[in-house]
Amino acid sequence: MKNVIVPDEEKLERIKKEIKKQGFKKIHILTDFDRTLSYSMLEDGVKISPIISVLRNNGYLSKEYSAEAKALFEKYHPIEINPDISIKEKKNEMKNWWDSHNELLIQSGLNKKDLKSIVESATIKLRKGVKELFNYTNQMQIPIVIMSSSGVGDAIQMILEKMGIMHNNVYIITNKFVWDSDGNAIGKPSPTIHCMGKDGIAISGYPEIYEKIKNRKNIVLMGDSLEDLSMTTGFEYDNILKVGFLNPGEEENELQYRENFDIIIANDSDIKPINKLIKELAQ
Questions:
Q1: Which of 69, 92, 182, 207 has a CA that sits 20 to 30 A from residue 278's CA?
Q2: Is the pTM higher than 0.90?
């Protein structure tokens, strides 16, 4: 499989033409984080675990936390992947899962230092080209909105700060805890964002972000699942260019990706083609 797949060249050129016609001041980027901006695999082929899994499996919190978190996983993950359960039921169960897990994290003494320790361990690796993308869009003042269902989304800002790319054009919509002065988690995220719930998270519900993009009605959307296409919920746009990341192990979804995305980045490759695209659109 090629690293970059364009299912319909003519359609892509039409979208690019319309976006370029309106100019870069009408563009914003709307993107997922895990397995989109970050790699899904290490160089040795080992799958990269999300931070929430590292917390659960690597002894950062108590043994009791690990046991209870694994019990929640064993209860709800089969529901998540069961094709015979309706989307509506799955959404309810996924919300129950994350609400329960977030409460468990608070009870187990989650502290910001736990997240910082994981970030410093380089468990998460951003794709080659991400730094260039963030620096260029900051230079051009093209907003990047990250919408992530990461279980402990506060770590996203830490990762970007570590990379020196948490610029003022970057906005993050994710699960953020309430922390006390000692860095202890004392309040759950509201609303809870889970893997199947992005269609219920409207950007208009975040006024400080919505004000920055409300007149930028040309979207470059990036995600690694079909559910990520719902990130535009409640936002009226003129044009949307959809980039899908078809990661290793997901090859059976290629046909669906071809039907739903304008550009496909496969084989866990870098995002340099997207940087070239953004620069072309911003000319």
A1: 207
A2: yes
**Pairing mode, strands 178-179 and 185-187:** antiparallel
Residue 61 backbone dihedrals phi, psi, to 5 degrees: -115, -160
- Token look-up 């690694």 returns 224
Q: Taking the C-alpha atoms of 94, 98, 100 and 102 in order, what is their torsion angle to the nearest 10 degrees? A: 180
* Residue 175, φ and ψ in degrees, nearest 5: -80, 105
16-65: pLDDT as tens digits: 999 999 999 999 999 999 999 999 987 767 788 888 888 888 888 888 99
Token couple for 44: 């040795």
Phi-psi region of 20 (alpha: psi -120 to 50; beta: other; left: phi over 0): alpha
- Tokens standing for 152? 């402990």
Other residues' Cβ atoms within 10 Å of the Cβ of residue 153: 24
The residue behind tokens 């909105």 is 145
Bridge partners, residue 171, by sequence:
145
